[in-house]
Each structure stands twice: as C-alpha cells, then as structure tokens.
Amino acid sequence: MKTQDRIIHAALALFNQHGEPNITTNHIAADLGISPGNLYYHFRNKEAIIHSIFDQYAQDLALAFDPSQPQEDTQALLQHYLDATFSLMWRYRFFYANLPDILRRDEALQHKYLDAQQQLQTNLMTILQHYSHAGWLNLSESGLAAVGETLKQVASSWIFYQSAQAPQTHIHAGVIYKGVLQMLALLHPLTSSQGQTAIASLMDHYQQQLVRQDIRALDTLN
User: Fold this and answer.
1) Contact between 23 and 11 (Cβ < 8 Å)
2) Per-residue tens of pLDDT for the chain, all 222 residues
3) Alpha helices for the chain (secondary structure H)
4) CATH 1.10.357.10 region(s) of the chain?
5) May I ask the CATH architecture of the domain 53-221?
6) What's the whole-model pTM score?
7) Which tens digit of pLDDT belongs to each residue from 154-207?
8) 1-44 to CATH, choices 3.30.70.100, 1.10.287.110, 1.10.10.60, 1.10.357.10
9) CA-based, 20 to 30 A from 94: which of 17, 72, 128, 171?
10) Contacts of residue 147, Cβ cutoff 8 Å, sequence gap at least 6
11) What is the DSSP letter of 2?
12) Distance (Å, whole) CA 218 – CA 222
C-alpha cells in the first residue's frame, strides 16, 4: 500500500475511534510510525486528509448503489439502498458524528458534501417512485418529495443526533441499525397493505441485525 493510502486508512480509523477533533497529524504519523515531515510531504494538513477521505466516501457511494441496476423485487431494492447507505455511514462515521463542525471549517468540502447528498436524494427518490408505481405508496409527487427529504434528513443526521443524546455516547453498529429502523417506521404508515407487509418484513430483518450488534457491543464493553 502506498504511503498516501496508508495515511488515509490510518486517519479514517483514528477519526472513527477517537473523534476527528481529538486527532492531529502528529497522532496519525505516530500511528503509522513515520515522521510528521513524511506525512506533510503527502498532505499539507489535516483538512487535506479529510478531503481525500471524503473523496473516497463519494466514490464508494457511487459504486455501492446504482438504482438503475435491476433488483429481484421492490423490497430488495429498498433493502439494497438501506444496506449501502448505512454501511457507508458506519465506515465513515466520524464525518457524520462531527458534521456541522467539519463543514463549518471548510466551504469547499461543504460543496462536495452537498453534491453527495444530492446523489443520495436522487437514489432515494428513484426508490420511492418505484414504490409508488408498484402501488405500495399512495402519494402525490409533492408528497413523495416531502417524504424523501425527511428520510434524507434522518439518514444524514442520525449519527450526530445519537452522539448528542448523552455525554460520551459510544456509537456502535447497532446505532446504525436503529437509524434504518427509524426510516422504515416513517415509511410504514404511508404504504398500502402490500407495502406494509414488505416494510414489516424489512423491519423484522433489521431488528434482528440490531439485536446481534447490541450483543456484540455488550461483549466488547465487558
């Protein structure tokens, strides 16, 4: 692995584990066993590292979910979207946990973030329209847009919201599945009987995933 890639990989792990505000370039260099000068040869500061991590996130987002690809059925399409979106949120969780502060410091990064959010919204609207055409959602175009915006807000702010609920909140994978369940709970009352059956099935699936992750989190703490 090239040194530049090693720096990105190490920074991502440290940011996720300790929080981006608590990690400096010196911490990253020490973790890799390289000099700060060697790190600065590749990245002029921490913000440049964060930009590179976000570029990687945006690329992973583009590859993880393509709504134009055929799915087995309508339910599978939504599950694929949720799995792709929230798995990336977990992999890059530091960014969502410190989102307002990071974007406030860097206008260029905020533009990148807004572009990525637009792609997420486009993908989500494709799914909601697919549900509407299948007769699983009975909403007007404006209604679909409003629901899509609400779901995007839940997804984009979920980790930050959970982090703010109590001091020293530990964000583990189970927290991500709670976000998935929250999105499905919002959709459930808006669907037809057929759609409700599918949503209920997905909620049961993710509830099982949540229980597994909660057990793992307790084992880790013990």
Assistant:
1) yes
2) 799 999 999 999 999 999 899 999 999 999 999 999 999 999 999 999 999 999 999 888 888 776 666 555 778 888 888 888 888 889 999 998 888 889 999 999 999 999 988 888 888 888 888 889 888 888 888 999 999 999 988 988 888 888 877 666 777 888 888 999 999 999 999 999 988 998 999 999 999 988 887 666 655 555
3) 3-18, 25-32, 36-42, 46-64, 74-91, 93-97, 99-105, 107-133, 141-163, 173-187, 193-221
4) 53-221
5) Orthogonal Bundle (1.10)
6) 0.85
7) 988 888 888 877 666 777 888 888 999 999 999 999 999 988 998 999 999 999
8) 1.10.10.60
9) 128
10) 128, 139, 186, 187, 190
11) -
12) 6
Q: Enter the tokens of residue 171.
A: 């964000």
Q: How far apart are CA 97 and CA 101, in angstroms?
A: 9
117-145 burial: b if 16+ Cβ within 10 Å, else e: eeebbebbbbbbbbbbebebbebeeeebe
Question: What token pair was written down for 83?
Answer: 């799995």
What count of residues does the chain have? 222
pLDDT of the residue at 74: 76
